[in-house]
Write a structure and sequence with these properties.
heterodimer, A: about 425 residues, alpha/beta, four-stranded parallel sheet, 8 strands, about 50% helix, B: about 90 residues, mainly alpha, two-stranded parallel ribbon, globular
């Protein structure tokens, strides 16, 4: 048990997060415009913050890991995890983390996510985990980030397990990665003394399956014209609550039920999230840190445009995990980890997945255009711009591909991006709303 | 001989091998410092530099991190920077 004089590294920052999220929840519940949906979302995030804090304070296992590592397994073993970059990004408006990340040894032209991840560990902004599960996909820099963490003195003695991802998306590839997840499980059992049981993994995977089904319903509803939920809502709330907190929480299922209910209500009443939806936009990447709060409202107010969804919020790739046995669940989690979750799905392996996804969303969501933010860390996707252009041409939708850092608003500033989008819209004859 | 060279950065856990390789070569060639060329937008090299900086600090290796381009240009500026670096070594 820790005492106040031996405050664990990184916890002071997480106490700040806790206080901030408590304020958000209070405002969402008791403010002038109560918002039960957002209150529940922040409760889920707060639960995670509290879980990691108390495990760290009391010396229980805490993992540093990622959304593509089968985190249902951790939940089934009653082990908390966090991803070192997760809370850095939503808290950017309240911190100097972006500026700090530029004063470190990583060059400014490197991926903002990786740079801030390195900074977060170097500067002690995250609790020190008891074990690290490395995700060695989808990008090259992801590997080097883990090597940077290993060189950080406070993390140099932490045991690391690295999952080896295959490049393909065949059943053989899923079997191979299921084997990796089993190796990880055995390693965790040795490291923590916790065990994985069939019943516990089944319970967690069943909750994940319920969320997957609701997520699918939500995306189907979002295809309606006008779109029933606002820009970036599904990817921001959905992805963050389902893949960035301990898996298996019934609260997350409840949150998805609320989102589906809200969308159903709007569709039934013929109401869109925007009073006068004029343009439907697809965001072809992760959302990043600043685009949702900055570009979402701006697109709505200036152009009557709604970002209907993004790679991050798209439910179509997800399959149901077969809970018949541990083996079938490991297979389902492997498929999820290397084939279904965003960024990994589009960036690992061949361009075929990119092609399939864009064609589907252009058709399903009746989009007017595709915005490809060209995140400077996503070299793999930027190499596919030619393919993307051809796909959009064939589908008859215009494409704007630009360069940005979706996790660092100082690289290409939001104002520069807005100007690019305005020029692109003008070229299509889409003028700002005349107010 | 090729097999004795360290892996490229795409293989996890091999950064130290590459750093030691550079240090061994410095000894073999009696080099007084290291020039780390940095190609813009190359994440691999950017974060390799991050790791090498710490290694160089701990082994007292003088390092010049040099931003270069994909085409031949700015040769005057590059020469000036390298000259200044060499002067610090002598």
């Amino acid at each position: 048990m820790m005492t106040t004089t031996t405050l664990a590294r990184g916890l002071d920052r997480w106490y700040e997060y806790r206080a901030r999220f408590e304020q958000f929840i209070d405002a969402m519940k008791n403010g002038p415009e109560p918002n039960p949906l957002m209150a529940l979302f922040f409760e889920i995030v707060l639960d995670q913050v509290n879980a990691v804090i108390s495990s760290t304070e009391e010396g229980r296992p805490v993992l540093s890991s990622w959304y593509g590592n089968g985190m249902e397994i951790y939940a089934a073993m009653d082990i908390d995890f966090y991803c070192p970059v997760d809370l850095i990004f939503p808290n950017q408006p309240f911190t100097h983390d972006v500026v700090s990340s530029h004063s470190g040894p990583s060059p400014d032209d490197t991926c903002g996510l990786i740079r801030q991840g390195a900074m977060a560990v170097a500067n002690g902004l995250v609790p020190t985990p008891t074990q690290v599960i490395a995700m060695l996909e989808p990008c090259d820099a992801q590997l080097t980030l883990h090597e940077i963490w290993q060189k950080t003195p406070e993390w140099s003695d932490i045991p690391v397990f690295a999952l080896d991802p295959p490049y393909g998306s065949s059943p053989e590839d899923f079997e191979y990665f299921a084997g990796e997840l089993k190796r990880m499980t055995r390693w965790l059992e040795e490291q923590t003394g916790r065990t994985l049981t069939y019943e516990n993994l089944k319970r967690v995977c069943e909750e994940t399956n319920r969320v997957t089904e609701l997520w699918g319903e939500l995306c189907e509803l979002q295809r309606t014209v006008p779109a029933p939920t606002p820009s970036f809502m599904i990817p921001e709330i959905g992805w963050n609550s389902s893949q960035h907190v301990n898996a298996g929480s019934p609260k997350v299922t409840k949150l998805f039920e609320m989102m589906v209910g809200l969308a159903e209500q709007n569709v039934a009443a013929g109401i869109g999230a925007l009073p006068d939806e004029r343009l439907r936009v697809y965001w072809a990447d992760l959302d990043g840190s600043w685009p949702p709060p900055v570009l979402g409202p701006w697109l709505a107010e200036t152009f009557g445009a709604v970002v209907v969804n993004s790679f991050q919020g798209e439910a179509a790739p997800y399959g149901i995990i077969d809970t018949t046995s541990i083996d079938t669940m490991m297979f389902g989690l492997a498929r999820r980890s290397i084939h279904e979750v965003p960024m990994i799905r589009q960036a690992r392996g061949s361009v075929a997945m990119f092609d399939t996804d864009i064609k589907r969303v252009v058709r399903d969501y009746s989009v007017d255009c595709v915005l490809f933010p060209g995140h400077k860390g996503h070299k793999d996707q930027s190499a596919s711009i030619g393919f993307l252009r051809d796909i959009c041409r064939e589908a008859g939708v215009p494409l704007l591909a630009f360069t940005s850092d979706i996790f660092d608003p100082t690289w290409m500033t939001p104002e520069q991006v807005k100007r690019r989008i305005t020029e692109f819209f003008a070229a299509q004859g889409w003028d700002p709303i005349d107010r | 001989m090729v097999q004795e060279r360290p892996s490229e950065p795409r293989v996890f856990g091999t950064a130290l091998d590459r750093q030691d390789f550079v240090r061994d070569n410095m000894g073999a060639f009696k080099a007084a410092g290291v020039v780390l060329p940095h190609l813009p937008m190359c994440d691999f090299w950017g974060f390799e530099k991050h790791n090498f900086d710490a290694y160089a600090d701990s082994h007292a290796i003088p390092v010049l991190s040099l931003n270069v381009d994909y085409i031949v240009g700015n040769t005057g500026q590059l020469r000036t920077r390298v000259q200044a670096f060499i002067e610090t070594l002598t």
